[in-house]
Amino acid sequence: MERPRRPGTDFFGHQDTAPRLLEPAEWASAGIPLLRDPRQVVGGLYSRHSPTPETAVVAVFDPEERLQASASFRRSSAPDGWAFRNALLDRLRRVIPHDLRRRTPVRTAVLLYCRAGDGRWTAEDGAWMWGLRDACTLHGLRCGAYITLTPEGWRVQGEGRGGRSPRSGSAPAPLEETEAPYVRPGGGTRSPMWWAAAR
């Protein structure tokens, strides 16, 4: 019978000191799907959640890049991939059922993190990347983009795409201005489904 492991230990019960983070090169080679319109994604999440520094927004999108669910929360631990994975998984379980029965993930999780500094990669970003990738695996989702939001603007890490608006501390645009109408097959439009957990 396998002996249960304590968090932060290896199979033999020794302290696991390996860093739980992803370097930019590892993230860039992980096959993360590109967002069709990152500015719209960032603008919509910022308008809905108005994150302040040390706030994370995790969002789940369908294959048409329509938002299915989202939740925001404050960072409550030191930068560590394991702790971030647990926090992300907890929020995902609250707002949307898992897709573990599917052979191939259909929905994609994206993480927007608001922090101080500039848009350059940090070890904290690497820990969030590790946590997002692991949480997606455990919830049956595709691991999507990791986006930082700073006083300089926003940046999709690993891609180089970014912009100056919105930025940390800026006034959010009205939500209806950040939503693109969804074109139904055969004509006609409707608003995308926006649903978020209470912060």
From TrEMBL:
Comp. bias (Low complexity): 165-174
Ranges for region Disordered: 155-199
Protein's name according to its UniProt entry: Uncharacterized protein
Species of the source: Streptomyces physcomitrii
Lineage of origin: Bacteria, Bacillati, Actinomycetota, Actinomycetes, Kitasatosporales
